[in-house]
Amino acid sequence: MTKNAISDHLKQINERIGQACVQSHRNNGDVSLVAVSKFHPADSVIEALKAGQRLFGENRVQEAASKFPQLREHWPDLKLHIIGGLQTNKAQEACQIADVIETLDRPSLSLALEKASQKLGSLPDLLIQVNTGNEPQKFGIALNEADSFIEDSLERFGDKIKGLMAIPPFDEPPKKHFQMLARLAKRFGLKEISMGMSADFEDAIAEGATLIRVGTAIFGSRPSKDSV
Ligand SMILES: *Cc1c(COP(=O)(O)O)cnc(C)c1O
């Protein structure tokens, strides 16, 4: 992927975000683009930074740690979201490198994050990942446990809980999952709704997404072993 391709793609995506906002009568500023750079080298991230992109998403703590701390020295306003399933033994490192963890999805991770925040004296903002499709193999709190987990998380972390995140099942139209997530967020008065990827971010914007996570449409395809 050449640098021009990445900046061209970013321009196109931002135009499409603008159009989707117009169509759904939303303010452009209410939707933020998370550029998902997993499996792509730091050079690609740098090209995106040079094109003005500041918000990035990575799935794996290890990979994020190998790219982003150095980049922050040159781009102090860079923001990093962890968007992949988080192991409890990576919670502390995630807290050290991320501005937002989008994948709080179980009580054991809450405990690990609480411990890390006590040790570090700080905590990233948090989104709760909801398994809207109730898929057994997927990350995210199950729908029937979501209410009580959100309540517990609000009690534990207060206004560090900024919103909800979901990845709809691949074999279903995403719209009803987007609507489910948006309704749930609204019910709890949570502002951030992270949903929509390369293939469906315009639909997600129509349903109220405030964060869209776009990888392939910006950086090109990833190695096929990565199915997410
Ligand atoms: C990889 C990934 C994305 C980006 O997917 P694309 O289809 O490449 O846009 C978004 N969200 C999560 C959680 C991901 O793992």
Unreliable parts: none
- Number of continuous helical runs: 9
Average pLDDT reading: 95
Helix content: 40-55%
What percent of residues are in strands?
15-25%
Which kinds of small molecule does this entry bind, naming each only once? Answer: pyridoxal-5'-phosphate
Structural class category: alpha/beta
Q: How are the secondary structure elements laid out?
A:
Elements: H1 3-23, E1 32-36, H2 42-50, E2 55-58, H3 61-74, E3 79-82, H4 91-97, E4 100-104, H5 107-120, E5 125-131, E6 141-142, H6 143-157, E7 161-165, H7 175-187, E8 192-194, H8 201-206, E9 211-214, H9 216-219
Parallel strand pairs: 1-2, 1-9, 2-3, 3-4, 4-5, 5-6, 5-7, 7-8
The structure holds pyridoxal-5'-phosphate.
Structure description:
It is a single chain. With 228 residues, this protein is of the alpha/beta class. 45% of the residues lie in helices and 17% in strands. Strands 1, 2, 3, 4, 5, 6, 7, 8 and 9 form a 9-stranded parallel β-sheet that branches. α1 (3-23) packs across α2 and α4 crosses α5 (107-120). It is globular and about 45 Å long. The structure holds pyridoxal-5'-phosphate. The site of pyridoxal-5'-phosphate has 15 residues, from β9 and α9.
